[in-house]
Amino acid sequence: MTAVDGTTVVVDEVEALAVDGLRWLLATARETDGGGLGWAEKPSDDELDPTFYSGTAGVVPVLLEARRHFGDDSYGDTALRAARSLAAAVDDADQDGLYFGRAGIAVALRAVHDELGDKDAGAAADRALEILRSRFDGTRWGELFELMGGNAGIGLGASALGDAELAVLAMEPYLRTAEKTPVGVHWPHRPGAESRLHHLSHGALGMVAGLAEVGRATGRADLVELALAGAADVVSRDEAGPDGFLVPHSDPQYRPELVERISYGWCHGPAGDAQVFRLLRDVTGDPAWPSLADRCWHTVVRSGIPERLRPGFWDNNGRCCGTAGVLALACDRMAEQGDGADFAHVLVADIVARATRDGDGTRWSNFEYRATPGDLEPHTGWGQGNAGIVRELLRFVRLSRGGDPAYAFTWPDQPTVRPAA
Question: For residues 6 and 351, what is the distance between their CA atoms, to the nearest angstrom?
């Protein structure tokens, strides 16, 4: 039991909540041909979704996490059944990216192969890589040109899967498409875009992450140098120095009628920026990068999150745009520096308070202040739903008990923890 700012977090109760979250997730699975299991983005959706961001591939990490955390092979059995449906989806996926398509499906399949020894899952991952290679047009795979749906994520995924040739193929187009700025470079996230996005999910830092990691893995100094130029442009846009770090979503503002200029989460804010700075720390050894990660943390803990201070300020519990994504960084800091625990408890207390818990299990509803009613249907997957939230809760429980900070398998855009010497 830990009390923080008048809020008591009982670690055993957090673990029990995570178990209930897994129970709801398992109850929403649907049988597929050949004895597989798949998930839709929302239980009310007609079609299954194989992707990492919102569907079956994103459920696999929490199943593997639960198997490891509880020592319960039934979660592994469910992951094997999920892999069967993913293997069947490899040929028919309509996108290729890490979060929205084939590359993410391949990473999830390879994880099942590596963790559970399933040869069919490994073969399906290899087939996905071959299809990816065949669909490259010489510059890109589709409209998106960033981390979640485009080259940067495909490069990271290919590198994680040991396909250096495909990883370089994905990243080299950034060399010839970079646009010079007064202090570095940036890129459009899609053809014809007027705005330049800056952060991890769809912006320059996502491309920086791909360039830096693939450059390190393949010995391509030109890719690392370009990554540093992209990071330099983003750093030059900071509005919160010298102690903090806060860069607007985009310049000029992308879709200002819908998108907040300032965010604090993984996707478009300092919680995600810090992950890229952690990667650049590992790639370069330059102490400037952990210093920038510290400045991101300074801003995050003083931002007002997870309070809902005004409509649209912080309406999401999930891994991509909400509280669970910030918890991932807090747990990284607990493991590396021992300084994230207090805020991690604040975040977990908020996740616990916002859970819906009944006979069906536990799930979380995000909120849309522009809609009536504003409470949205709970989602299943990594980005906005139970899979991403429960995975972070289990890691928090393990860290709180002095356990291993590593995930069951590491997703390509979140560096593994490196405890301070």
Answer: 16
